Amino acid sequence: MIPLKYNFRNLRVRWVTTLMTILGTGLVVWASVLTFGLVDGLDHALATTGDPLDLIVLRKGANDETSSSIGAQAAREITNLGGIARSPDGQPLCSSEFVTILTKPRRNEGGTTNVIVRGLDPVGRLLRPDFKIIEGRDLKPGVNEAITSRSMANRFENLGLNESIEINKIGFKIVGIFSAAGSAAESEVWTDLRDLTTSQRVPNAISIINFRVDDPAALPTLVDRITDDEQFKLKVIGEPQYFEEQKSASIALKFIGFVIAGFLTVGAMFAAANTMFSAVASRSREIGTLRAIGFRRRSVLASFLLESLVICLLGGLLGCLATLPFNGLSTGTANWATFSEITFSFRFGPSVLLRGMCLALAMGLLGGLFPAIRAVRVSIIDALRQR
Amino acid sequence: MKLLQYIWRNVSRNKLRSSLTILSVGFSLALMTVLYGYLAMQEAWGKAAVKRQRIVVMNKQGFSGRMPIAYVERVRSTEGVVAAVPYAWFGGNLQEEQMPFAQFGTDPDEVFNVWNEMKIDPEQLATWQRERQGCVVDRKLAEKRKWNIGDRIPLQGTFYPFSLDLKLVGVFDAPQYTDSLWFDWRYSDEEMRKVAEDQAGNAGTIFARCASTPIMPEVCETIDTRFANSDNPTRSQTEAAFAQMFTDMLGNIQEYIRNIALAVIFSLSLVAGNAMAMSMRERTTEVAVLKAIGFSKSRILSMVLGESTMIALLGGLLGIGAGAACLQTLHGISAQFFPLSIYQLTGPWLLGLVCVAVGIGLVSGLVPAVRAAQLSVVDGLRRVI
After folding, report:
1. Helix/strand/coil (H, E, C) string of A315-367?
2. Band of pLDDT at residue A189, cut at 50, 70 and 90
3. pLDDT above 70 for A49
């Protein structure tokens, strides 16, 4: 085994080249990790929402909440079904909700897009993960008040605290800001069910019913009971499955992410190979000497591979570190499933950073392999004879 | 000419290094071509819409709002409007596929006056106007799905609480792939009346064609003013602005793509510069000899810069070619997201990418070139590498 010191000293002697290669691979890893973090954030916004005991009732044939509608009669009967979990104060955890999309302008001339406005019963808050008001207060039913999340308030005109959003010519005052563990609820504006249906002039309209079963064993019977009812024409899906289906929203972004990472990694691989080839070429006499004093071929191979790995991993580390300022940065894009804006934050969790480092590893290994093979294939005599 | 030959000899001297640099520039520029091609496609799509003199009228609240069918007649009678039709997005599922293509309910008598650039066989059009359950599709869509005239196309409603049983009666030719199916709006309205009386009579959006481009803003304003105090205020805009709305929905993604591209350019300059510097370091003695026999500083400078530019340009052209091929493949796979083929996209942005390649070459060659030009002959000859 050739001592590591040999590699580090070599890197230090050619410090300009080393630094340039580190920076080059670092930038590539940075761009890739940024993309992975974007996709991961979007996935997270859709994924944390699902509780396996929470069910969503939709009209048969509807793909998502915004395209569903449920008759008032059916809604009443579902609310009265047995097997629905109760809140600590005895209320059934079953929320009738009306969902509509409104076209609203983003702040700072960011163009217009569709915003989900949801009217729901107060009990609906218990069906969201970690729902809490973080600023202002919760809305009062009957007086046209609304609440929304911090990211929506920052992102859209008229959604800040104490501002007023217009729904069908009626102003709804934003009285509070809520958080819900980064779930899809944080991409919505909430108001009272009756207030919303009245202003939209569709009294008693209901889009979906959201409820929690108290016993996992009773879940299949309850699902069958609702699905099989000829009169209802409804379907029930578990919340995790509902959001799983919406993940198609992130497929386009994922695709872009992998294309970017793929192209860049291959490009960076060639760059690393270039550096290592030149390292091998300019050190052929050294390689000859190493072989002459008894180091084995595989030691030389390992040594050069290691050197390339060190360069790329340092670059990878730098790239990962450079993404940290973006951590938690909030952004948004179109969720084509609901045809509306979904807000989410960049997330650089261990898996995302690991993927970035894997890219760096691949660059180092593949970029270093061929130069290292060339290094061990030179005959000792030839190598020593070079000037 | 001699200089060019000398540069080429230098480029092809270390074939391995040059081709690695070319490949690394090529791959990254291929990526940039795909990214920028996508942005250019969005822009060209919007621009193409301007020429058609079409405006879109929708409920001020957005797509979920109601657009009473009576408004169509009133838009049609507005001064400056040539033709107007209801245009309702159906968004149905075909068997197991969720919204596999666009489906719109519209008016068979007028729709080809609004989309006057689209062509259909007059006989097929007459059949469609006669048969309530008939539908027409984009020829390319029919070819993709291997549909023939007379085929049944059952669509399950998603937000419409009923299904449509359509029969293909015609195909139309559009200058650009639309991925669309058109059926008679009245058919879906009749079905709606059976299920939910109070929701019937909704035109969705209204598409209208104006007599000329300059009057479009005025027509939009006239329409919006007229409906401002009704139960359903409208928002009218040109088709280009309408298309822009969908691009806007994607949000900061475009900005993000541009930032990634900047990072790529920067890292490329480093990579190519590094390779060039390595080459020049190995040739120190050579440069000193050149200077000793009387080559001027500027000559040396242009030689090195020429070499780095040639390498970057080769990589750039290769990459742009590969990226264009990628775009063409993507267009073939999904015309919904990539609406234009590469032949419709040739524009200044391609030239811009070539400039980027040249720029990378110049920047990457700068430091080695200046170093070589400044090299003192004595030092250079003495140096051992």
Report:
1. HHHHHHHHHHHHCCCEEEEEECCCCEEEEEECCCCHHHHHHHHHHHHHHHHHH
2. very high
3. no
For an interface test with B, which of A30, A263, A338 has the most B Cβ atoms less than 10 Å from its Cβ? Answer: A263
Provide the pLDDT for residue B50: 67
What's CA B309's distance to the chain center, in Å? 30
* pLDDT at residue A280, rounded to an integer: 81
Least confident range of A137-151, A171-185, A253-267, B215-229: A253-267
How far, CA to CA in Å, does A83 sit from each of A92, A227, A343, B97? 10, 15, 34, 34
Query: Tokens in use for A232?
Result: 């209802």
* For range B244-272, the mean pLDDT: 79
Q: Does A188 touch chain B (CB under 8 A)?
A: no
Other CB atoms within a 10 A radius of the CB of residue B374 amount to 10
Residue A103 near chain B (CB below 8 Å): yes
Coil, strand or helix: which one is B161? coil
CA distance A378 to A126: 71
List of chain A residues whose C-beta atoms are within 8 Å of the C-beta of residue B163? 61
State residue B104's pLDDT score: 93
Q: Which residues contact B58 (CB under 8 A, 6 or more apart)?
A: B65, B67, B205, B206, B234, B235, B236
In B51-166, which residue ranges form alpha helices assigned H by DSSP? Answer: 70-76, 111-114, 122-130, 139-145
- Return the half-sphere exposure (C-beta side, CA atoms, 13 A cut-off) of residue B377: 10
Give the helix ranges, DSSP H, for A283-326: 284-292, 297-323
Give chain B's radius of gyration (CA, Å): 30
CB pairs under 8 A between A and B: 169
Tell me which residue in A63, A69, A114 faces B62 most closely, judged by beta carbons: A114
Task: Give the residue among B17, B259, B133 at the shortest CA–CA distance from A270.
Answer: B17
Please say whether the dihedral angle defined by the alpha carbons of residues B364, B365, B366 and B370, taken in this order, is positive or negative.
positive
Give the pLDDT of residue B144: 85
Q: Which residues contact A117 (CB under 8 A, 6 or more apart)?
A: A99, A100, A101, A102, A146, A165, A167, A188, A189, A190, A191, A196
SS3 of B81, please?
strand
At residue B1, the pLDDT reads 65
Cβ–Cβ gap B24/A277 under 8 Å = no
User: Cβ of A270 and B23 within 8 Å?
Assistant: yes
pLDDT at B205: 92
Q: pTM for the full model?
A: 0.79
**CA pair distance A45, A182, nearest whole angstrom:** 6
Task: Return d(Cα B84, Cα B102) in angstroms, integer.
Answer: 20
Q: Determine the Cα–Cα distance for residues A124 and A120; give it in Å rounded to an integer.
A: 6
- The token duo for B140 is 């390319």
Single-letter amino acid code for the residue at A257: G
> Is B15 in contact with B279 (CB distance < 8 Å)?
no
The three-class DSSP label of residue B67 is: coil
- Give dist(CA A339, CA A103) in Å, integer: 10
ipTM attached to this prediction: 0.74
Q: How far is B4 from chain A (nearest CA, A)?
A: 24
Chain B touched by A96 (CB under 8 Å) = no
**For A194-226, what is each residue's pLDDT tens digit?**
999 998 888 888 999 998 988 888 888 888 888
